[in-house]
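Side project, low priority. Logging it here so it doesn't get lost.
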Amino acid sequence: MGNVSPWQGVSGRTTFEWLEGGGFLIQRSTVQRPEYPNAVSVIGATGSDGAFQQHYFDSRGVARIYDMTLKDNVWILFRDGPDWPQRFVGRFTGDSNTITARLERGTYPGGPLEHDFDMIYTRIV
């Protein structure tokens, strides 16, 4: 049967909008299946020395803080966490209409990261 991701074929929608007055970017994600969480994230320069972070909250009651970088069309989110490490690496196409992302996670704090699943974001106008 091979390795088939439980996310394979799952559709969702993600929107990005500036918080009224600016300063923070709000990311909202909904997934078309009830077994996967919907989420809202707040992105801003809230880290030490003004570094970017994503504050993530989902419909399961999970809350996490990810360190974030966006450089050379690569968007990286990372957390070591008290339970396991996670990393999101999203690569923008030249026209910025698609992000191809790889999500990785470990099984214990400080542990090595392994492929978890892939995602593709496509801009809908």
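Brief comment: The radius of gyration is 15 Å.
Revisit when time allows.
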